[in-house]
Description:
This protein has 326 residues and is an alpha+beta fold. It has three domains: 3-56, Orthogonal Bundle (Arc Repressor Mutant, subunit A), CATH 1.10.10.10; 66-272, BirA Bifunctional Protein, domain 2; 277-324, SH3 type barrels, CATH 2.30.30. The protein has ten helices and 14 strands.
Amino acid sequence: MPLRRRLLNLLSDGEFHSGETLGVSLGVSRMAVWKHIKALREAGVDLTVLRGKGYRLPASLELLERNKILAAARAATVSAIDRIDVFLEVDSTNNWLRGQALNGAPSGTVCVSEMQSAGRGRRGRSWVSPFAANLYLSLLWRSANGAATLGGLSLVTGIAVLRALRSFGINEAGLKWPNDILAADAKLAGILVEVLGECSGPCAVIVGIGVNVNMRPDEATAIDQSWTDLQQLTGDNSISRNDLAARLLDEVIPAIATFDEAGLRPFIDEWRQYDLVSGREVDVLLPNERVTGTACGIDEGGALLVETLHGRRWFASGEVSVRLGS
Ligand code: BTN
């Protein structure tokens, strides 16, 4: 296990540890400990340094661990997973898996990270990814179906994430087309599905999921929309991100497999149940146009229907914003 990871393990009890005792446990000098502490602080880890006492994390924390995720997952999930890479820091778990996919990594390759230095959201946005506050997870899936058939996959992933969240008692969350996960009109989770490969031949899909778990307001100042997290919704500040990762994989893997075989049809009714926007006034933002109307749910292909003053329109892509008060 890398030294920095072992250092965080020692600090994960939230107590003070002196540089000397950490050095002894890790088999390195106090100076080497300090260099790692400094690098962690520069990467955004909130480590207190107190002369005479040592170093401390603000609270105890459970770090992400491959074995804990696998132990909490269903047997069928464990057999579908090829491997789980766990990082302290990566630019983006989707980027990492993209590189792995290009090198031939198989279906079921999973990546999680304690933080992302360049986490990405949909439509070129960034995804705020502070250390150990949230879950950042990506799954690589190879499909015999071409990229063109995979438009509905982001909707299906939204359903799978909601199913997983329900197992944590989050019943009020729902979907804003195509797959924003909101609770109390605030963003709780986001999904970024990226496809590599041919339109009609075999392709690789990277399903990236970010779930806000327990984020401090000062860590979230760069978020430009209202947001919420599992801690705010449940009052529980000890939700295990390892358990959450397992539940997500338990739901996402079979949902993708079903989608691969049967398409969107088995999911349409459930998606409609979770639809938070149907009947509300929306603006649909397209590259060169803004369309205003009343959202009317999705069609059988997953396109958004909007009733406008000039008739009904269908959208296969676009950014939806709900008009205030509607
Ligand atoms: C959105 O804009 O709603 C999508 C956000 C997706 C964020 C996740 S976090 C894990 C994965 N890695 C990334 O860089 N993005 C996705």
